[in-house]
Write a structure and sequence with these properties.
The complex is a heterodimer of chains A (248) and B (372). With 248 residues, chain A is an alpha/beta fold. Helix content of chain A is 38%, strand content 24%. Chain A has a single domain (8-246), classed as P-loop containing nucleotide triphosphate hydrolases (Rossmann fold, 3-Layer(aba) Sandwich), CATH 3.40.50.300. In chain A, helix 3 (100-107) runs parallel beside helix 6 and helix 5 packs antiparallel against helix 6. Chain B is 67% helix and 2% strand. Chain B has helices spanning 2-7, 18-43, 54-80, 87-106, 119-123, 139-163, 168-187, 213-239, 241-251, 253-258, 263-289, 299-312, 318-337, 342-356; strands at residues 199-200, 204-205, 208-209, 291-292. Classes of the chains: A alpha/beta (248), B mainly alpha (372).
């Protein structure tokens, strides 16, 4: 491990469900501003890993730290969301009865209590922030449209936009291009690459073409542990990876 | 109207909302009731065909109270997805708080003429007033209780239920149980709330004779004002960012939690507020109708409220109030004309509305803003 601070430290995390080890002493680090792709066959533990980071699942053993100060295992789901870890789910869930603008408004970093949200107005700076994000995700023309009328791809982008509103340090993105058209995939790839740098982004994805197009560093999971790490070429030529995944 | 329109432009830069336009109509209709009803009763001579009888006054007052109760249910069900089948409990508790005040006002005019004890206590051979009746001879104290008791029950009950993440149909069932348990408790003479007879035979409120038309008119106007105020308060909530969070909870609860919103606390706040509105409605109901008994807690009452809201249009506020008035008008008419068909009619109405009018009567009103 280098001296340089990481954004996320997972060390020897084990999660078992009825004796089946979904994660088996998994260790993983994320650098500030990097775009890390995680691949692996079904059941490799990718989603469980995301669940551990976001507090949805508690590990049996191991540690999870956000930076050097914050022990993620001590925080609840909403608290983890508030300290700067945003997660995009596999299935896009935007609020269908709210407009695109309102979806982003609710995701805005800031007040979360009933009374404060009841009294909250929107400052010019916040308005600007929403406009910026609308620009980034390319939904400026749909700002007044209800969530339910968006296409699948647009919902995915809106959800990424909602993550951005929370100004997270770490973005966890689960299968962003599943079910997208080639054009939509290309736009998503541009979008995610533009986010790295300002944020650390962890992408879990099956689509190898897509991973190749965005990733600098790829981590391969299998049976709950890391079996290979490096750039795409390195990983693709690793015999262990070929055996369990790419060689199938 | 033009002035209003300008203030309709919301934080999200929306064009004048449909809600506000309909709200203006709704408030206008309430103002009409509050002005015309007193004139028809007080200024028009009883011999005239346009004279409004005391009976009609009570009836309209009752509808207004029910409209408030419907608003309370629509706020939590229509906007936050919490289907309470126990709101009659909060309505009744508010009513009982008012009833206790009115009982203490009877004083020596009761059948037994006891200056302190209400008749039913004398009848049960009680020697002194139970501690929980203290203070109810003061109107201000009673009014405070109309707010506090429903709020406290909703707060404690909601805290346990929401914290345990009891949602959906399970929540509905335990609210039914809550209301039923309270009904059984209030039926017991030992509870000190008059048993199955409840409270009745009230004489006056704040020194004004409850049987005079003038008092009835004032109570009716106050109820209309309370209804308008509740409507405005509910609308302020649903149009704020908190209201958008509520709708987010309704449509995707766990997603809202992931955005960092304390979902349980939002539900609790709204539930408590809604219980208070229901309690005030009950408190206004009792002096106008002149009786409160444990039958008001009956589970069927809470279910009927849900039907009013569904018929009027869930998630529209004004529609809920409209539904309450229309369904209750139908009930008044049908239970008079064909008493045996009423429950079938109510059941059929609910089925038909669910199948053919999912957005209720409010959904029939043509909307200027097209749904994209």
């Amino acid at each position: 491990m280098t001296i340089r601070d990481k954004v996320l430290y997972l060390e020897k995390v084990t999660v078992s469900f009825d004796g089946f080890k979904a994660l088996n002493e998994l260790s993983l680090y994320v650098d500030p501003g990097e775009l890390l792709c995680i691949i692996g066959p079904n059941g490799a533990g990718k989603t469980t890993m995301m669940d551990v980071i976001t507090g949805k699942t508690r590990p049996d053993s191991g540690t999870a730290w956000f930076g050097r100060e914050i022990d993620l295992l001590k925080l609840s789901e909403p608290q983890i969301a508030q300290i700067g870890i945003g997660r995009k789910f596999q299935k896009p869930t935007v609020f269908e009865q709210l407009t695109v603008f309102e979806n982003l408004e609710l995701a805005l970093a800031g007040h979360r209590s009933f009374m404060k949200t009841f009294l909250a107005g929107m400052s010019a700076a916040q308005h600007k922030r929403v406009d910026e994000v609308l620009e980034i995700i390319g939904l400026g023309d749909q700002r007044m449209a209800l969530g339910k009328i968006l296409s699948h791809g647009q919902k995915q982008w809106l959800e990424i936009g909602m993550l951005l509103m929370q100004e997270p340090e770490l973005l966890l993105v689960d299968e962003p291009v599943a079910g997208m058209t080639p054009q939509e995939i290309e736009r998503t790839s541009t979008l995610l690459r533009s986010l790295a740098g300002g944020h650390s982004v962890v992408v879990v994805e099956h689509d190898m073409e897509f991973v190749r197009s965005i990733a600098k560093r790829v981590t391969v999971l299998h049976e709950g542990r890391v079996i290979s790490e490096g750039n795409m070429d390195h990983v693709q030529n690793d015999p262990r990876v070929i055996e369990v995944y790419l060689g199938e | 109207m033009l002035l209003l329109q300008r203030s309709w432009i919301t934080a999200s830069g929306k064009s004048p909302s449909e809600e506000a336009r309909r709200g203006a109509w709704f408030l206008g209709a309430l103002a009409f009731v509050a002005i015309v009803v007193p004139i028809l009763n007080q200024a028009v001579p009883p011999t005239s065909a346009f004279h409004l009888s005391a009976f009609a006054l009570t009836l309209i007052g009752k509808y207004m109270c029910y409209a408030m109760l419907a608003l309370a249910v629509d706020l939590i069900w229509g906007y936050c997805g919490i289907l309470s089948l126990g709101h009659a409990a909060f309505f009744s508790l508010g009513g009982y708080a008012m009833g206790m005040y009115l009982m203490r006002q009877i004083g020596t005019r009761g059948v037994y003429g006891d200056p302190v004890l209400p008749d039913f206590m004398v009848f049960l051979n009680w020697k002194s007033l139970p501690w929980f009746w203290y203070g109810f001879n003061h109107f201000a104290f009673a009014v405070a209780m109309m707010f506090i008791v429903p709020a406290l029950l909703a707060g404690v009950f909601g805290w346990f239920a929401f914290r345990s993440r009891v949602t959906g149909v399970y929540f509905s069932i335990i609210t039914q149980a809550l209301s039923y348990a309270l009904m059984l408790a209030f039926f017991r003479n030992d509870m000190g709330f008059g048993g199955n007879n409840g409270f009745t035979d009230f004489k006056e409120i704040l020194g004004y004779d409850l049987h005079s038309d003038r008092t009835k008119v004032v109570l009716l106007v106050l109820t209309v004002v309370a209804l308008a105020a509740s409507y405005l308060a509910c609308r302020a909530i649903v149009e704020s960012r908190a209201g958008r969070v509520m709708r987010a909870i309704r449509d995707a609860e766990s997603r809202t939690r992931f955005l960092g919103y304390p979902v349980e606390s939002f539900k609790l706040w709204v539930f408590v507020f809604s219980a208070i509105v229901a309690g005030i409605a009950g408190a206004l109901f009792v002096p106008q109708v002149g009786v409160i008994n444990p039958g008001e807690f009956a589970p069927i009452n809470s279910i009927e409220v849900v039907i009013w809201v569904a018929v009027g249009g869930r998630g529209t506020l004004f529609g809920a109030a409209l539904g309450a008035v229309l369904v209750n008008y139908a009930k008044t008419y049908l239970t008079g004309a064909f008493p045996e068909v009423w429950l079938y009619a109510l059941g059929a109405l609910f089925v038909l509305v669910t199948l053919f009018l999912p957005r209720g009567i409010a959904g029939l009103i043509p909307s200027k803003v097209k749904e994209k």
